UniProtKB/TrEMBL annotation, chains A, B:
<dbReference type="InterPro" id="IPR001647">
    <property type="entry name" value="HTH_TetR"/>
</dbReference>
<keyword id="KW-0238">DNA-binding</keyword>
<protein>
    <submittedName>
        <fullName>TetR family transcriptional regulator</fullName>
    </submittedName>
</protein>
<feature type="DNA-binding region" description="H-T-H motif">
    <location>
        <begin position="45"/>
        <end position="64"/>
    </location>
</feature>
<dbReference type="InterPro" id="IPR009057">
    <property type="entry name" value="Homeodomain-like_sf"/>
</dbReference>
<dbReference type="InterPro" id="IPR050109">
    <property type="entry name" value="HTH-type_TetR-like_transc_reg"/>
</dbReference>
<feature type="domain" description="HTH tetR-type">
    <location>
        <begin position="22"/>
        <end position="82"/>
    </location>
</feature>
<keyword id="KW-0805">Transcription regulation</keyword>
<keyword id="KW-0804">Transcription</keyword>
<dbReference type="Pfam" id="PF00440">
    <property type="entry name" value="TetR_N"/>
</dbReference>
Amino acid sequence: MTTMPGAVSGDRALPLRERKKLRTRRALADTALRLFLDRGFHETTLDELVEEVEVSKRTFFRMFQSKEDVAMAAELELWDAYVAEVAARELHGPVLDFLKQALVAAVTGLGEEWDRSFLATRGLIARTPVLWDRSLLHSVTVQSRLVAELETKLGVDSRQDVRVRLLGELSLAAWRCAVKNWISGRGYDGPSPMEKLGRWKGPGGSKVLIHRVEEAFDAVPDSLTLAAP
Amino acid sequence: MTTMPGAVSGDRALPLRERKKLRTRRALADTALRLFLDRGFHETTLDELVEEVEVSKRTFFRMFQSKEDVAMAAELELWDAYVAEVAARELHGPVLDFLKQALVAAVTGLGEEWDRSFLATRGLIARTPVLWDRSLLHSVTVQSRLVAELETKLGVDSRQDVRVRLLGELSLAAWRCAVKNWISGRGYDGPSPMEKLGRWKGPGGSKVLIHRVEEAFDAVPDSLTLAAP
DNA sequence: TGTAATCTGCCACTGAGGGGCAGTTTAAGT
DNA sequence: ACTTAAACTGCCCCTCAGTGGCAGATTACA
């Protein structure tokens, strides 16, 4: 959002070659999402995509690891932000709280533009099993990155201490629950009271998402005690 | 091949067509594992596999959804057994305990022959990233099957109650931790005291695996309280 | 300005996975 | 036992994701 026509919100200090790279990456992600939403994921071939963006297929695969990944660029952004946030913050107090706050901060930090394309992405994922699987996989994979950070911060070895790894898993489990509830589109608490205000049609923005995240994290302790008569 | 040398432990009561199906399925899984361990996953093509088993590639894809799946037949067996176990048992008391016991029962029920091929499978998975991803994905996917069972048993709606879904996730998270520790091959408690007895070389059998599972489940409550100073 | 490193485009190739059709085996009816 | 309907298998052909190689362009650097 500087005044340039095709300017990306990229740090102007970058080696220029990197900026170009980022620009095409951005272009690929955007048009990919547009095409996939329009014609469907399987109905769109990579050749059509790279045709539209005017890049070679070879270049595409230098930017993204797979056809699935380019559809979920927004989600990948989030994971990078999350891990970075965990790495940057200093850790004191309950680790689960720490993980919650870091995730909330990551979502907040990505801004307004992000949550629109993330919502679109989730819509696409919801009706494309292959993407659903990939998304799931990514979320599970972040766990190991998280654990690596936590290990250095806590000074424990995760191979000795199961708890650290479990916390990583828990954090992502909470995230998945949060997103599910977000998409299902209920209002703030309980089934859709807020929708009447017309402020949130559908899932709502990242404000609501953040609320869902906190909700899910806070529900973790309770779930352990859940019992049948 | 009617009076079959390689008779499977198949229920003789099955519709006969099903038995044939099971036999080729079994043959595919076994030789696939053998070939993959021998030459490597990517180095073995499907054409070579179906050549060896003497089936058409078309038939292969009627048995397994992908090349990855045939390598992890043992794991898929476990997940079916787990879900079946959860469905069969009646639920009372703490749900997390219930899930633990059902998983233990599932592993136990699969028997001696299974844990050998499962161990081999895990070895293959460990050195094949693609398979690692798939395995991870399967474990996460089981969660939704689990939750579906729990919902009917508890009579709650998982869309209202986050706790049920979290329990599903927790149970699989514990499983993944358990397997990691099992593979890492330490002895019963702490770093390898039992190995000196020569009773468990490497990870050890399903006895040890079960111990690891219980260990991981029991560590869940503790992990929540984990805190940094 | 020259030069070395890096990136891109193009081309050809492998291999997974699926669709269609014809032939065969099994289950069910009489 | 014989026939009919349904399900299964084999075979050939196709699409398309993803890779490696090489030549040409671009950028960083001296």
